[in-house]
């Protein structure tokens, strides 16, 4: 349904808009309006970059008049020959004061919530020219924190081509697209056959990878079951059941490091990262890579207690989704939300995969959603 304006009125240094249907009135300051003008002289129509000189706008600026025509509000200013333009949809989106937010609801889960099946999309759909399958896959990842693509040719070339549909592949100390066995090529447990507990990758990176993908190209052995944990669900359980532990886990900056292979990387983040409204933003947890740090005695004790609670929950089978990754199935998961782990195994296992930056994935998702 199109948004409609009932009336416009200049009131001193503000423009008042009365919205049809509910009588709601929004008041827009003149300086803000001039700074957000949508006309070509003030904003690049392609990039939407601002070209108006914000700092030349008079602090006491007041509109001269305003009119509505064909879904656009036009505002006239003193000593300016051209009017400013504002799509009604833009004014409606900015009707209430507040910081920008993106509505992307999440489905938090435990293992039992996935008993009816895992979120998945066929390879042929994801690779289709119309991008509808790609949009479905990325939307599933965004909602659940992970999703599978089935029927993928078990080759590194096909896997890399699939992942490049998401965006460009991130380069790290491990390279870009990786294809490896348990050859201990790096100082990391991923390059071994031992059990790996639930963790996120890149805790030692200032901007840790946003997403990670795995494809098991070859497997001849026993064990090696993959484990995934929705750490957002765990965090919300802790927030509800133990607020003191939640406060500690969301406020104590935990340092992490990677030493070896010619680098010494370091970064620090709380285990539970929050956004400006207290919502969950990012989980950063890898007990293997935690660097030494010391707090005041009582705070240190509270940290260890809270850490133990977090560890007990992520290792509780009720929170762990377990399945064997086998040739033909690619999993893409949110490394800022979903912890991953692996059972120890014996035999031969060849794995390939890659990282994507958080902003690149979300950019792709926004463009696909805009296409509808």
Automatic annotation (TrEMBL):
<feature type="domain" description="TauD/TfdA-like">
    <location>
        <begin position="120"/>
        <end position="355"/>
    </location>
</feature>
<protein>
    <recommendedName>
        <fullName>trimethyllysine dioxygenase</fullName>
        <ecNumber>1.14.11.8</ecNumber>
    </recommendedName>
</protein>
<dbReference type="Pfam" id="PF02668">
    <property type="entry name" value="TauD"/>
</dbReference>
<dbReference type="InterPro" id="IPR012776">
    <property type="entry name" value="Trimethyllysine_dOase"/>
</dbReference>
<dbReference type="GO" id="GO:0050353">
    <property type="term" value="F:trimethyllysine dioxygenase activity"/>
</dbReference>
<comment type="similarity">
    <text>Belongs to the gamma-BBH/TMLD family.</text>
</comment>
<comment type="function">
    <text>Converts trimethyllysine (TML) into hydroxytrimethyllysine (HTML).</text>
</comment>
<dbReference type="InterPro" id="IPR042098">
    <property type="entry name" value="TauD-like_sf"/>
</dbReference>
<dbReference type="Pfam" id="PF06155">
    <property type="entry name" value="GBBH-like_N"/>
</dbReference>
<dbReference type="InterPro" id="IPR010376">
    <property type="entry name" value="GBBH-like_N"/>
</dbReference>
<dbReference type="InterPro" id="IPR038492">
    <property type="entry name" value="GBBH-like_N_sf"/>
</dbReference>
<keyword id="KW-0479">Metal-binding</keyword>
<keyword id="KW-0223">Dioxygenase</keyword>
<keyword id="KW-0408">Iron</keyword>
<dbReference type="InterPro" id="IPR050411">
    <property type="entry name" value="AlphaKG_dependent_hydroxylases"/>
</dbReference>
<feature type="domain" description="Gamma-butyrobetaine hydroxylase-like N-terminal">
    <location>
        <begin position="8"/>
        <end position="91"/>
    </location>
</feature>
<dbReference type="InterPro" id="IPR003819">
    <property type="entry name" value="TauD/TfdA-like"/>
</dbReference>
<keyword id="KW-0560">Oxidoreductase</keyword>
């Amino acid at each position: 349904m199109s948004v409609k304006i009932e009336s416009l009125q200049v009131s001193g240094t503000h423009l008042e808009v009365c919205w049809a249907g509910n009588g709601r009135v929004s008041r827009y300051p003149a300086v803000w309006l001039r700074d957000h003008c949508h006309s070509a002289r003030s904003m690049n129509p392609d990039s939407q970059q601002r070209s108006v000189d914000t700092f030349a706008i008079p602090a006491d600026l007041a509109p001269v008049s305003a009119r509505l025509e064909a879904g656009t509000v036009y505002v006239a200013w003193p000593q300016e020959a051209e009017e400013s333009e504002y799509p009604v949809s833009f004014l409606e989106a900015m009707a209430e004061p507040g910081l920008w937010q993106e509505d992307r609801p999440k489905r938090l889960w435990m293992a039992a919530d996935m008993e009816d099946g895992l979120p998945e999309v066929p390879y042929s759909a994801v690779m289709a020219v119309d991008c509808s399958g790609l949009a479905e896959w990325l939307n599933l990842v965004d909602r659940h924190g992970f999703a599978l693509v089935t029927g993928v040719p078990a080759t590194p070339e096909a896997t890399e081509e699939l992942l490049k549909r998401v965006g460009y592949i991130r380069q790290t100390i491990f390279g870009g697209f990786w294809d490896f066995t348990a050859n201990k090529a790096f100082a990391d447990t991923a390059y071994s056959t031992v059990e790996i507990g639930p963790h996120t990758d890149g805790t030692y990176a200032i901007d840790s990878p946003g997403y990670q993908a795995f494809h098991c190209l070859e497997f001849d052995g026993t064990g090696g079951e993959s484990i995934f944990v929705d750490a957002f669900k765990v965090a919300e359980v802790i927030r509800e059941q133990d607020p003191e532990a939640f406060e500690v886990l969301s406020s104590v900056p935990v340092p992490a490091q990677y030493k070896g292979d010619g680098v010494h990387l370091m970064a620090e983040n709380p285990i539970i990262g929050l956004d400006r409204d207290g919502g969950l933003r990012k989980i950063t947890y890898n007990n293997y890579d935690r660097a030494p740090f010391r707090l005041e005695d009582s705070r240190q004790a509270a940290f260890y207690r809270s850490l133990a609670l977090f560890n007990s929950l992520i290792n509780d089978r009720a929170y762990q989704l377990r399945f064997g990754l086998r040739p033909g199935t690619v999993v893409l998961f949110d490394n800022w939300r979903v912890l991953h782990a692996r059972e120890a195994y014996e035999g031969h296992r060849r794995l390939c995969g890659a990282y994507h930056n958080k902003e690149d994935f979300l950019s792709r998702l926004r463009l696909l959603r805009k296409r509808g």
